[in-house]
Amino acid sequence: MISVDPSSRREGSNPPAAIGPMPSAPLRIALIALASDHGIRDEMGLLLGRRGELHLARVSAPDDYDLASLATTTRNIGRALQWMGTGASVDVTAYGCTSATVVVGENRVKRKLTRTLPHAPCTTPITAALAAFDHLGARRIALLTPYPEPIHSAVARYLAGRGLQLVDQATLDIATDRAITDYPAEGLRARILGLDRRGADAIFVSCTSLRIASAIRRIEAAVGLPLVTSNQALAWHCLKLAGRSAKIAGFGQLLATNPHL
Questions:
Q1: How far apart, in Å, do the first and last CA atoms of the chain sit?
Q2: Which CATH number fits the domain that encloses residue 83?
């Protein structure tokens, strides 16, 4: 099943991001999300504000997920982009699932995106996070995910395989997407603060279903380190790929720096 939502967010559902001078037109992002992801649209809308125009389509995914079901979510990426009907108007394409990209592989996912819209640069949350770590000069990472252990371990191995050192890691061990989005904000903050950050260059909180954007700045102030999240990195990388040099304040060091550097 594929569903399409051409709006970036419901009118009035998000406060505007703190932004500098507006570009002449918003960044148009063709975003493919999982049907079970209840967080990504509002998080991306909050992070980008009026700078982003999300053209959102969803691909079928069960709420209770595992490695096998994640792998199937990428099958209809091309069809979802075609049904979206945005064509040449899109600036960037993105597949919005960190763990599924890890399971299937970045290159395979990006080939599916570029096969349908070859003119537009593409990204995924894990691609964006890796680019963010490079931008921040971060090689030693403290990792928190919400996933069951097999999926958490797959993400941890993927990061290590890309040359990152995990100084500490933990999982919330949540088996359904809905429960990930509903995870209490204070509980999430406490789990992040509970990571052993000694020697870390940054913290990575994985998963686009988590609602965390509004807390990034306060958590960074508490831990004294950059906090990178899946949706924050995805928003930043989309700006960077499109050559947009705007800074967005209020959502951590990554978006506060010039994404086109």
A1: 39
A2: 3.40.50.12500
Q: How many domains does the chain have?
A: 2
Residues 136 and 226 in one domain: yes
Residue 49, SS3 per DSSP? helix
Q: Check whether residue 54 and residue 137 sit in a common domain.
A: no
Q: Give every CB contact of residue 44 below 8 A, 6+ residues apart in sequence.
A: 8, 29, 31, 52, 54, 231, 234, 235
pTM of the model: 0.89
Q: 18-27 burial, b if ≥16 CB within 10 A, otherwise e? A: ebeeeeeebb
Q: Are residues 120 and 20 in the same domain?
A: yes
Mean pLDDT by 10 residues, the chain (261 residues): 41 42 74 93 94 90 84 87 75 95 95 92 97 96 97 98 98 94 95 97 97 96 97 96 85 82 48
